[in-house]
Amino acid sequence: xxxxxxxxxxxxxxxxxxxxxxxxxxxxxxxxxxxxxxxxxxxxxxxxxxxxxxxxxxxxxxxxxxxxxxxxxxxxxxxxxxxxxxxxxxxxxxxxxxxxxxxxxxxxxxxxxxxxxxxxxxxxxxxxxxxxxxxxxxxxxxxxxxxxxxxxxxxxxxxxxxxxxxxxxxxxxxxxxxxxxxxxxxxxxxxxxxxxxxxxxxxxxxxxxxxxxxxxxxxxxxxxxxxxxxxxxxxxxxxxxxxxxxxxxxxxxxxxxxxxxxxxxxxxxxxxxxxxxxxxxxxxxxxxxxxxxxxxxxxxxxxxxxxxxxxxxxx
Amino acid sequence: xxxxxxxxxxxxxxxxxxxxxxxxxxxxxxxxxxxxxxxxxxxxxxxxxxxxxxxxxxxxxxxxxxxxxxxxxxxxxxxxxxxxxxxxxxxxxxxxxxxxxxxxxxxxxxxxxxxxxxxxxxxxxxxxxxxxxxxxxxxxxxxxxxxxxxxxxxxxxxxxxxxxxxxxxxxxxxxxxxxxxxxxxxxxxxxxxxxxxxxxxxxxxxxxxxxxxxxxxxxxxxxxxxxxxxxxxxxxxxxxxxxxxxxxxxxxxxxxxxxxxxxxxxxxxxxxxxxxxxxxxxxxxxxxxxxxxxxxxxx
Lengths: 315, 299
Prior knowledge:
The complex is a heterodimer of chains A (315) and B (299). By secondary structure, chain A is mainly α. Chain A has helices at 15-28, 30-54, 67-70, 77-84, 86-106, 108-118, 123-134, 141-152, 157-162, 172-191, 193-201, 204-212, 217-242, 249-255, 261-264, 267-277, 281-309, and strands spanning 60-61, 72-73. Chain A is flat and about 75 Å long. Chain B is built from 17 helices and no strands. Classes of the chains: A mainly alpha (315), B mainly alpha (299). Chains A and B meet through α1, α2, α6, α7 and α8 of A and α1, α2, α5, α6 and α7 of B.
């Protein structure tokens, strides 16, 4: 009953007709707008678009009592201050290294796990292994970092096993390894779900045929399994590569100690400390904005590269 | 029988490769299990023995002290209570708002779809950042209110895309049958569409619940009142900042004893705080595959 008003598909509608159709559609389907879409729209406008106006303070000497309207404009001063400080390169490098190394080590492991799980014939055993593999994902960041600190403490089990008393948490050289290994421990199993699901959708017949044709495991992977997950791998890669600059605050902050800051201070933790601990609102906003802009550029670039490699199919 | 014959089809090299694969998988499983078992066993040990000799199976030295102290501490329970409230409210609000919004966005005839899509998508790539968001929350008078941790993240565009994709996979016949019966949008949505979307609802609900339960950043910056702090912030002071809640260790005489006890409390705290989720999630396992696959199909 409602489709009549919309489907006047003749390409040449006058503007008035179009407007009329829209009005008819909207009055007819007011529920879709007011009941279904409005709550999400309000939340988005208030909590996502609201702060976007606030980035203006990055170009100000912001004074909370005067507000955005009353504060003095200073142009790109904060950006210049950040970009010319020696800390800038350190924090940028820390951020990039942490996420790029994390991705290089962390990305292939879920795929490997999915291939291995796919080779387990008994579904009962497979389910049990999956249950264990997914478990760490449900442990909180704080608990994960708590466990890491316990295992690595001076009197902890690792030191007891090695017969040493090294304080790993205070070593800048150890921070990245700790961060990445604990990340794999927590996330690799969970990350394999998408691939496992894609693999189980791969045609069973195709695989049977390959086996009968005498294909060995590598040939089976090449002919049947890899094509089944290729798109998924690509998509996960774009998503992760696009998020390189938005590497999470929570874990890095919970693994920081005063002594490992040389490698553990990343842009997001710096933004937090400058802004909320030191109260330097404008400077912190400028650093955050810089981070966001780089992130957007990266995402666009990665998407371009991948869609070129993949015959025009991007995200 | 069938399994055996299948396995026999592998050549010798393949069998060796397979064995290597199983060993790798086994090692990975062990790497996950061992730290967890260690924490569980260590939580029952006497702190001095643990520090000097590591884990021993000298059961006379085992103790429940740590658990007694953690359980009798009120701040842990306040944290639990707050975490449950925030996570449940966040989950409910978020799933409702997301499932509702995904419906019009899933319909091909919805006018303004492209426009709203752009409005939503922009927020996935660009945001105001920490301080502007903080100032907004503060101007809205939401500091020290639970809504400060709930509302900003309640609508997730990503989850909306997942739900939308799932709706699009629902057979068109259901819609047509509803049209014939003259069902309104609301009746169709609640009575017909939602009931066939249980897997995606279950997965989104679980994600949102777990996400809120396990996070601490928003609570750390918006909630200063100790009566409002969720569990993760209480854990943070015990596990990360080495500051156990005062009542937990204050009766110990020497600093050394206090430090050892503080160390032991960590183990018990980890177990008590992680148990609820670890017990709960296996019940959701059957939804993982279908729900997550729904989200991975491009919408």
